[in-house]
Design a protein that fits this description.
alpha/beta; 2 domains; four-stranded mixed beta sheet; 46% helix; binds acetoacetyl-coenzyme A
C-alpha cells in the first residue's frame, strides 16, 4: 500500500476511510496533502471492493482548518496556479460516494472539502465557515458556488462576506449537514451510513450520484435527460436483473457490481 505523509488510509469492510493527518496544524490542507488525498480517493475509486468512502480529520479539534496559510502566504498568482489546485478537480471527479465525518473546525478549504462530499455527518462541536475574507482572499475550492447552490444567496453572502462560523445545527437546519451527532460520534455514524450505501448495487450507486450531481451543473432539461439515460443504462446490468428477480422471489438480492 502507498505510504502517505499527511493522510492515513484504512478500510472497514467495503468502506474506504481517509483521515487527514496533521492534527497539530488542525489538519490544514497543504498542497501535498490535497494531492495525496486525490491519489488516495482515486485509488479507492478504482478498487472494486470499495463502495463508499469516508473522509475525516485526525484529532478532536478539526476536520480541516482550511488551506495551509503558512504555505500560501508568500505566493504569487502564478505560484498558486501551479501549486496544485488541479487536485481539487480530481476530488470532484470521484465517482464513488463520499461522506465527510466532521468534528471540530471545517473552515475555508476544510468546509469546501466537506462540500465536495455527497453527505456530511457532523459532531455537535463542528463549526463551518469560509473565513478567507479575513485573510484578504475569497474561497478558492468551490465555496462560493457550492454554498450558493445549497445554502441560497443570502446565507452564503453572510458566510463569505463576514467570515463568520456556523454551528453544525445551523448547517443542518439549512440542509448542508445530513445529521448532527453527539461529540466524538461523527466517524462511527459516517461509517454506519457508508455501509448502508456500500450494500447497494455499486453501478446504480455511481449513476445515481452522477444523476443527482447533474442537477447542480446543467439545465433541468439536460439533467432530466442524463437521469433517464442512466436509468435506461442500468437495465444493462446483472444487478438490475438480480435486484428485480430477488424482489419477486421475496429474497435478499446478491449484488455483484456487474
Ligand atoms: N493554515 C496553517 N496553519 C494553521 C491553519 C491554517 N489554515 N489553521 C490552524 N493552523 C495552525 C496554527 O497556526 C497553530 O499552529 P502553531 O501551534 O504552530 O501556532 C495550530 O494550527 C493551532 O491553531 P490555533 O493556535 O490558531 O488554534 P485556536 O484554537 O486558537 O484557533 C482556529 C483555531 C479558529 C481554527 C484558527 O486556527 C484559525 O482561524 N485558523 C485559520 C482558519 C482559516 O482562515 N482558514 C482558511 C484558510 S484559506 C483557504 O482555505 C483558501 C481556500 O479556499 C482553499
Amino acid at each position: 500500500m502507498t505510504n502517505y505523509q499527511y493522510i492515513l488510509i484504512d478500510r472497514d469492510e467495503r468502506v474506504g476511510i481517509v483521515t487527514l493527518n496533521r492534527p497539530k496544524e488542525l489538519n490544514a490542507l497543504n498542497f501535498h496533502l490535497v494531492s495525496e488525498l486525490a491519489d488516495a480517493l482515486e485509488a479507492f475509486d478504482n478498487d472494486e471492493e470499495i463502495r463508499c468512502i469516508v473522509i475525516t480529520g485526525a484529532g478532536d479539534r478539526a476536520f480541516a482548518a482550511g488551506a495551509d496559510i503558512k504555505e500560501m502566504s508568500g505566493k504569487s498568482p502564478i505560484d498558486m496556479m501551479r501549486g496544485g489546485f488541479e487536485s481539487w478537480n480530481r476530488i470532484r471527479r470521484i465517482q464513488t460516494p463520499m461522506i465527510a465525518a466532521v468534528g471540530g473546525y471545517a473552515l475555508g478549504g476544510g468546509c469546501e472539502l466537506a462540500m465536495h462530499c455527497d453527505m456530511i455527518i457532523a459532531s455537535e462541536n463542528a463549526r463551518f465557515g469560509q473565513p478567507e475574507i479575513k485573510l484578504g482572499v475569497i474561497p478558492g475550492a468551490g465555496g462560493t458556488q457550492r454554498l450558493a447552490r445549497t445554502f441560497g444567496k443570502y446565507r452564503t453572502m453572510e458566510m463569505v462576506l463576514t467570515g463568520a462560523n456556523f454551528t453544525a445545527q445551523e448547517m443542518a437546519d439549512h440542509a448542508l449537514v445530513n445529521r448532527v451527532v453527539p461529540k466524538g460520534e461523527h466517524l462511527t455514524e459516517a461509517i454506519k451510513l457508508a455501509k448502508v450505501v456500500a450494500a447497494q448495487p455499486p453501478v446504480a450507486v455511481r449513476l445515481a450520484k452522477d444523476a443527482v450531481n447533474s442537477a447542480f451543473e446543467t439545465t433541468l432539461e439536460q439533467g432530466l435527460a442524463n437521469e433517464r439515460k442512466n436509468f435506461f443504462l442500468l437495465f444493462a446490468t446483472e444487478d438490475q436483473s438480480e435486484g428485480m428477480k430477488a424482489f419477486l422471489e421475496k429474497r435478499e438480492a446478491d449484488f455483484k457490481g456487474r
